[in-house]
Structures are given as C-alpha cells and as structure tokens.
Amino acid sequence: MERLQKVLAHAGVASRRKAEEYILAGRVKVNGVVTKELGTKVSHKDQIDFDDVPIYQEEPVYYLFYKPRGVISAVSDDKGRKVVTDFFPSVSERIYPVGRLDYDTSGLLLLTNDGAFSQKLTHPKYQIDKVYVAKVKGKADDKQLQPLTRGIRIEGQKMAPAKCVVISNDIKTGTSIVELTIHEGKNHQVKNMLKAVGLPVQKLKRERYGHLNLDKLRPGQSRELSKKEVSQLMELSKSSQKK
After folding, report:
1. d(CA 104, CA 100)
2. pTM, 2 dp
3. pLDDT digits over 157-166, tens only?
4. E-assigned strands of 124-209?
5. Where is the RNA-binding S4 domain (predicted)?
6. Which terminus of the chain has a smaller tally of CB atoms within 10 A, N or C?
C-alpha cells in the first residue's frame, strides 16, 4: 500500500506536491469515488482516475544487480556519469535503487518500482544484514577490529556493532581482506569504520544482502527476484524489527 499522491507522482501525473493539490481539489477518484484525503493509501488493485482518465499503475518488479565500480546508484546524474538504470534498457517500469552503493564500491544492489518494499528494506528500524568484503591497507587482526564489534562513534554518530572476520593477510603487499557484516546504511559507513581502526579501504564489495548473494552474476549483470525471494526479504524485515 502506498500514499495516493506518491502513486500519482510515480505514474507521471505531476510532482508529489502538485498531486496533493489535485487530490485536495477533488480531481482524483479511487474506485470511482472522489478522494480528498491526503493520507489515503492505495494498492495496485485500486482503479485511480485523474480528471476522469484512468492512470496506469505499474506491476511491481524486483531485480538483483551486480553493480560495477564507477557507476552511480541513481536513475540520473547531472554530470553525465553512468547510472545503475543504464544497465536495464529493456525494462519499461520506472525502477530505482533500494538504498545505494558508493561510486567506487561494487556488489549487490536491489532495484524496484515498489515503494513500500524499498522503504521496508532501507528504514533504520529494519535490521537486515549486509555483508561487505574489503581490501584494506595494513595487516588486520581480531584485536584491531574489536572496537567495531562493540560499536564505535564516528563524527558524533554511534555505529551499531559489526561482525568482523579477517579472511587473509598479504605480507608482500601489506594488505588484508576483511569481511564486515552490518545492518545500517549510513553514508560511507564501512569505509569510515575501517579507517577509524587504521585500515583504510582500497577496494570494497557488497557480497550479500539478507539471504541474497551474487551467485554467478558478473559486474553489470542482473536477474529478477523470485516471488519467494521477495517474500523472504519482507519476512526478514519483520523478524529483524522484533529483535
């Protein structure tokens, strides 16, 4: 279920604010009845008319995408850089990324046109695990990573405890491979956390999102989520809220 003004905006009728004006003016009908309540929520099964003309509501779609490095997690970029939706030329629905990955971070990213689904997965109260693998400068060990497992404060913000595993150390290059599991999604969070314990990130990839992984996908490739996978994510968000 989504707010009526959001559905109107998503259908291209007008901006969300302008859509609210149209609703208040009595120009919108839901299932044949004029609706002036801004809090009205509708589903894909409801018939919505604007000035007595039916609007088209897209069926929800869900994609798992292996975002390459050097790609913006957005639907457009004012600097003309490549964005994630450039990899979906044959998808007619207006999809957008669920959350984001940094420009130079690769890995698992979800895209959808389902606002309720996106909100469920990105809202701070829904604690879904995200697993990152980082190549860092320095020799990492459990003791060095221990502050991250307790939760550290960065720029005045307290980070939730993370699960940390040292995968390998390369003495010759002076680098290490570290796996971090977090459930938050603050800007540059993984990079800032590792930098705070003296392990600046050289390369970063998101390997898993909840129960999903990249499997056999290569950078730039994608696949649709199954109904079962979508349901599992929604159930995961519900169970994480109870923790």
Report:
1. 12
2. 0.81
3. 899 999 999 9
4. 130-137, 153-154, 157-158, 163-170, 175-182, 201-209
5. 2-65
6. C
Class assignment of domain 62-124+215-241? alpha beta
DSSP codes, 92-138: -S--EESS---TTEEEEEEEES-HHHHHHHHSTTS---EEEEEEEES
Each residue's pLDDT tens digit, 14-61: 888 999 999 999 999 999 999 999 989 998 788 999 999 888 777 889
Long-range CB contact pairs, 157-161, < 8 A, 24+? 157/186, 159/184, 159/186, 159/189, 159/193, 160/127, 160/184
Q: Half-sphere exposure of 19 toward its Cβ, with a 13 Å CA cutoff? A: 22
Other C-beta atoms lying within 10 Å of the C-beta of residue 163: 14
Q: Which residues fall within 8 angstroms of residue 126, CB to CB, at 6 or more apart?
A: 120, 237, 240, 241
Which residues does the annotation mark as catalytic? 102
**What is the CATH code for 2-54?**
3.10.290.10
Task: Compute the CA torsion angle 224, 227, 233, 235 (nearest 10 deg).
Answer: 180
